[in-house]
C-alpha cells in the first residue's frame, strides 16, 4: 500500500492510500457517488460524467472515478455545484432515452431510475422528439439489445474486449447517432455472455431467459454457491414465490453472480447461470418402495427397512454418488458408509458424465461443486468401469445411487446393469431416466432448499443458503444418512421421529 | 512587416521544391542544430516564447520539457505532426503544406533531434489529397538528399518520417484522439493524465505539435530564440498566421507579428465589407466566440484574447457583419459540432444534438421564451464537465452567442 494521506470528503476527515480513486474511497465511507461507466473490473473511461465532485482549488469539477486522493484535498460530492453537475449529467443521459419503464425489464433495478429518484427529480425541459434507434436486436442466445435505451457507457464492449476478449459487441457510428451493436458476422455467444446483462446499468441489454417473466421487485434474493462446477462461483439465487402464477410457475427466476474477489470476481458463466432449468421439474416428493410391491413409506419405516438391507449387504454394497453433495452430506456419508458400514465401493468420479469444458476464466472441467469435499475427508472413488464389471459379475447385492443418472454413465447398458443388483436405492431431488426401476426412491432436497457448504477445487469453502421450501417430503442428504445411522444403531420409531 | 513562414511565398513560386528551399537557406538550421547540444536547441525554443499554434497556445519549450529524460524512461519517443487541420475557418496549415513542405520537414527534424525521436510521423487530414501528394514528394526529395534517414547530414542523428492519413473526423485533430486514430482505434480523445508527452503513441513519450508551430523552428534555430521572442508580444513570440474569411474585401492568409492589433488586421484585409457594420470577429475558428467592436484595440496574442473572453485558437478569423444573424451562426456551428462530436462522453454527445435541435426549432419560428435560458443552461452543463475541448466548445458557443447577441435570440422566440 502506498503512503497514507488525510483528506476531507463532504466535511468528514478520512485517511486513504495516496492516489486511491475518490469514488472507491467514498464507497467505503458509505457515500455512493452516482456513476454508470465506472466498474471496478472494467476500468474508468470517465465517459458518463455522472460521478462529478467538487475539489477545492481545482479549476473545474472533477470526475471522481479518475481522481486520486491527495494530502489535504477537500472533496465534496454533495455541494450545490457537484449535485447540479450530477443532475445535469443525468438530464443529458435522458434527453433521448425512451422512458419506456412500464414495459422495460430493467425497471426496479435501473441506474437511470435510481439516480433520478436520488439526484434528479427535475422537470424535463426537453421539447424535442426522441431520437430513434433499433430495439429488440437478438444479440445472442441469451441477450437482447435495445439501442434506444442504451446510454453508451461502454461497459459491455469493455467486457467483451478486455474480459472475454471475444469482441462480439462494438460501438458503431459517431456522435448522437452512435450505438452499441453486434459486430458484423458475430453473435454474442461467448461462454460468459450473460454478464453483460448484469453490468448494463440500464435496460439496453436484457436477459432473454428472464425477460417478461417476473418483475424484479417480487424477487427474493438468497446468497448461494453455483453447484455447476468445482469453481464454486458465489451467486445470488433469485426466487419468485410472491407471484407464483408468473415465471411459468418456476420458483427460481434467475441466478446472478455475487462478488467474491477470491473466487469469481464479478462474473459467472452461462452454463451456471442458465443451468437451473430443471430445478422444479421431475422431482421426487414421496418416500417410495417400488418393489416387490409398491408402497408409500414414512421416513421411519423406510429407515428401518433400508437399515436392514444395508446391514445384510456387507461387501455387496456399492454407492454411486456425485460431487453435488455438500460438506455436511459428505460428513454424514463418511460416518455412515465408511466408518459404520466399512463400504469400499464408492463411485463418484466426475468422469464420464459430469465433465465439460474448462477455460482460463472460471469454468472447470468437473461439472459438480464438491468433489474436493470428499477428497478432503479421505473418501476415495473407484472407477465406473470397475463398478460395471462387478455388476456384471453379480458381486453387487445393493446399489445405492445418490443424485446421479445411471443412463448418463452407462448409456444403453444402464438398465441391464441396474437389473443385476437385487436391491437398488435412488436418493436425490430428481427421478432421472431410470427412476422407476429402483427398489426404493428417497426424495432429497435440491441445493436451493437447504443450507450447506461446498469446498471448491482450490480448497475454498463457500456457504449456500436455503432459498426455498423443500418439495414434498424431501430432506437434505445428510439428514437421510443420519436417519439411517440411527436406524442401524437399533433406534426405535419414536427416536427416529425426534 | 516581419514575416517568417510566408517570407518567400510571393517571390518564389517553387518554394515547395527542395532546390528552391535550399537555395533560400533551407536546411541550414538543421545543420546548425545538429552541431549543437540538444539541450541548447531546446533552450532556444524555450527562450523564443513559441506557443502551440494549433489552437491551445501551450508554450512549446515547456511541452518538450515534460518528456521524461531517456535515462529515466528508456525506449522510443516520438514526434507527431498534427496536420489534421479541420477547424472551420482555418486553412493556414493547408497553405503551409502546399507551399512550404520542406520548412515543416526541417522543423520536424529539429524537433525530433531535440526529443530523440528516431521515428517521426505526420498525421495529415484525409481530405488533403493534394497536400499529401506534395508531402510524399518532399519526403522523397529529402530522403534522397540525405536529410531524412540514417546519419542525417553526416551526423550521428537518424530519423525516419512517416505519413499517416486521417479518415475524416474533426476530432482527430485533437492530440489524444489523433494518437488513438494512429493506433487504429476509434478517434475518442483520451483523458489525461497521463499526457501524451509521458504516454502518447503506443504509450511511449510523444510530442504532438502543429504544422505552423514546427515550421517556426528553422527561424528560431537560425536567428536565436531571443530574436523570435522580440518579434511577438510579451509571452507569445514570433508571428502568427490568420486564415481570414467572412465579411472582408481581401480574404486569404496573412502573417502578422503576435500581438498585432485587431483593427490593424481588419484594415489589412478590408473588413467588414463596405456598407456593412462590424458585428464581431471570430478570432481563431468557429469554436471561439467572437471578439466585439469594443475589442478592436486589443492585441492578438494568446493571453490578451483570452482576457477578452475568447481564444486566439488556430487563427481562423471570420469577420461577421450586421447582415448576419447570431442564431443562424450558432445553429450552423452547433450542427457542425453535433456532427463531429465523437460520442464518447454523454454531455457533448447528447447536449450538442439537443441544442442544435432547439436552435433549429427557433429558426423555424417555433422558439419559446424559455428556450434561450435553457440553451444557456445546457451550455453551462456541458462546458468544463466533458473529456475534451470539443465538448467545452459546445457550451462555449451557446453561451458566447447568447451573451453577445441577446437581441438576435429574442427575435426568434414568442413572447
Description:
The complex is a heterodimer of chains A (498) and B (415). With 498 residues, chain A is α+β, with helices and mostly antiparallel strands. Chain A has helices spanning 22-28, 80-94, 111-120, 155-163, 195-199, 270-273, 299-313, 327-340, 371-376, 384-392, 406-410, 414-420, 477-488, 493-497, and strands at 4-9, 12-17, 52-55, 62-63, 74-76, 137-138, 143-145, 169-172, 179-182, 205-207, 220-225, 234-239, 252-257, 288-289, 295-296, 317-320, 345-347, 398-402, 423-428, 440-443, 452-455, 461-464. In chain A, the strands form 6 sheets. A 7-stranded mixed beta sheet of chain A has the order 15-14-20-19-18-16-17, with helices on one face. Chain A has a 5-stranded mixed beta sheet with strand order 2-1-5-3-4, with helices on both faces. In chain A, strands 6-7-10 form a 3-stranded antiparallel beta sheet. Chain A is elongated and about 85 Å long. The mean pLDDT of chain A is 95. Chain B is of the alpha/beta class and 415 residues long. Chain B has a 4-stranded parallel beta sheet with strand order 3-2-1-4, with helices on both faces. Chain B has a 4-stranded mixed beta sheet with strand order 6-5-10-8, with helices on one face. In chain B, α7 links the parallel β2 and β3. In chain B, α15 runs antiparallel to α16 (369-382). The longest helix of chain B is centred in the C-terminal third of the chain and has 18 residues, at 346-363. The relative contact order of chain B is 0.12. The mean pLDDT of chain B is 97. Classes of the chains: A alpha+beta (498), B alpha/beta (415).
